[in-house]
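Notebook p. 47: complex prediction with F0G.
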Amino acid sequence: MEKRKPRTLAEPFRIKMVEPIRITTEDYRKEAIKKSGYNPFLLHSDDVFIDLLTDSGTGAMSDRQWAGIMMGDESYAGAKSWQHLESVVKELTGMPHILPTHQGRAAERILYGILGGKGKIFISNTHFDTTRANIEFTGATAIDVLPEEATHSEIDLPFKGNIDVGKVKTLIQEHGLSNIAAIIMTLTNNSSGGQPVSMSNIKAIREVCDENKLFLVIDGCRIAENSYFIKHREQGYENKTYEEIAKETLRLADAFVMSAKKDGLVNIGGLLTLRDEKISQQCTNLLIISEGFTTYGGLAGRDMEAMAIGLKEVFDPDYLHYRIRSTAYLGEHLKAKGVPVVWPIGGHAVYIDAKKLYKNILVDQYPGQALVCDLYIKGGIRCVEVGSVMFGKYDDNGKLIPAKNELVRLAIPRRTYTQSHIDYVIDVFDDILEMKEKNKGYKIVYEPPFLRHFTAQFEMT
Ligand code: F0G
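Predicted complex, structure tokens below:
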């Protein structure tokens, strides 16, 4: 019998355990955000109704993963849970050296600590903020090379996360081959809108790496989501499974770094996997000094067990279809209301162009931060600015060099909220559209030297 397509995308799971969330008043939230220096990272989570700050470590685990937690082997060395995780990751990556870490940035710190250093250059489709910080911390430089068309938030292209291969070649010539430490492909491209990268783009960059003997890293914390887009948007992949596509992708890389808090479907965990024996030995030394022994990294045995199960579950076709379509549902409804969203909608989040929405707020008064605060005050919704607060720099005279875009990210935790939560978020945007002219923006009154968005303090201008 032919299967009828359901009109409503019903979640492919039912709820076995509930976690209450608190409904607060607008006056209460005005006080709470003021006390947090207008930085939602500093809010208490029980003052938040719908938490779209991140999709990282905020997902719900399955009954099978929770069962795995109870089966975790907590032996210091050679635990069964480690063997389980190692075999799943070896099969996925095809790489011989698997290093567990407590989260993604630990893998980054170890790998870029070894590949980086003063004078070295890293080139990426877009470095995520922790990637850039870990690279710059070594004294190296991180350069993003998105194609021109991908920087326009409304152009409808299937793979807006791609790297500009032509520009990469020019950069190699300009900086000299020996100074290029690595090329990093971020899948999906988080900071530029959660946009996917095509297989042909990764293959093209692999060729450039082969021609020049360059090291290719895949930051694949959303590799399953990227595989979904390849299957549905790239010719030749329609009959492959998501897992086959992920395997094909990872076989193109020399190293794979992963924050398992995303497509590992766990609350904590990370991975660094490598082909090269020598680099892997250097990384292993750093791992032991800072994370833990080679068979647990910074993780408990139960975390590794849950990760091993999560890395298989994430490729389930019903799950991935629900995941990508439910993110698109939010984006499509916001767009229909006239909210300027980055188009097309990416995998894990909806990105809003705050500069277009808050036309009256100048870049150095941080329109993204204004939207983030308004969403909290009006709806108890927490999300993050991805613009000049996150990526802005200062010139020698202390003037702001703004980021390329002033975006706000509504990241969707995996398997956590229902469609009615998302409908509520869509409703709150009616208030935002009504009141947007009232907000005059913010100024920064405290900031640390690295990753300032986490702890910066703001005042209204
Ligand atoms: N790479 C990418 C592409 C990421 O999105 C993240 C984390 C990391 C590396 C670092 O991993 O957090 O486990 O140390 N992104 C989260 C986010 C924080 O909200 O997008 P981590």
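Notes: The CA atoms of residues 89 and 98 lie 7 Å apart. Residues 317-337 form the longest helix (21 residues).
Next step: compare against the earlier run before touching the bench.
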